[in-house]
Amino acid sequence: MYITPEGKEIFVVDGHTHFWDGSPENQRNVHGKQFIECFYGYHTALSPKEQLWPKEKFEKYSADDLYRDLFVDGPDDVAIVQSTYLKDFYKNGFNTIERNAAVAARYPERFIVNGAFDPRDGEKALEYIHFMKETYDIKGVKMYTAEWNGASKGWKLDDPDAYRCFELCEKLGIRNIHVHKGPTIIPLNKDAFDVHDVDHAATDFQGLNWIVEHCGLPRLDDFCWIAVQETNVYGGLAVALPFIHSRPRYFAEVIAELLFWVGPDKLLFGSDYGIWTPRWLVEKFWAFELPEDIARERGVQLTPEIKEKILGLNAARIYDIDVAAKKAAIAAGPMLAAAE
């Protein structure tokens, strides 16, 4: 729960978090080292200096770190923890559903665990979707179209094998499809994160919600022109939001474009934990005001009501979270003491 300086309680759903193991012991090859070091580069480049972590903690933090940073020191009420396997780079996977589900089992009111699959696995991918639904009752998945799989260096959302998987997701009620469409991470291919295939998949699967994480950056225009047409396409602010600290005018340009094209009802907060922690992001976002010239030119505003939607109410709507019931359940659950 975030309490504003005015005393208002804001329900926060952190739509994009991770519980990874990028440690040297889990790295399969040089690409595992490159990948986590690139994440650390984003962390050090865009975080306030007082929020920087030692590299050793960044590579592998504990379940207690995760819980404390999100819910005790942090303002999150609910966190959606995303799965990303990267098994070509990591021996036991980078951020698997088993690892996520284990921590979520300790605090079931706090976490929503999303799965992941690779449509290039063919029939095994379909079997795995059934397994995740039956075992974890997932409501969503995270797609990583630039992930390597043997000789393949990526896939597209409108590939025939992908469509078979999305048909099954729709049938099983796995409605929220989070897709990394944004910045590249070495050694992955920037073009494999291109946003254009969202246009095809969102049109053909109207029963699914397509949450485009990172809003397609650096292809913001492409994302906006797609999302304004497709009523089931949403923008996840992970990676975009941290610019609020180091380049606030750039962030103002981005959020103003999103408000103009996509609108305040289809934008979701995400901290991208553990690249960034949610406390400083939420505090800066709540305090942020659009520069007058940017607001006037686009004809948009970033009001407290709009911020409240972005921070939690929009995600609550698409994940069927009853906010009042969730608040009561959290209040009745276990809670660690806040850090000194």
From TrEMBL:
One of its GO terms (molecular function) is hydrolase activity. SUPFAM superfamilies: Metallo-dependent hydrolases. It holds the Pfam family Amidohydro_2. InterPro entries: Amidohydro-rel, Metal_Hydrolase. Residues 13-321 form the Amidohydrolase-related domain. This is Amidohydrolase-related domain-containing protein. It comes from Oharaeibacter diazotrophicus. The lineage of its organism: Bacteria, Pseudomonadati, Pseudomonadota, Alphaproteobacteria, Hyphomicrobiales.
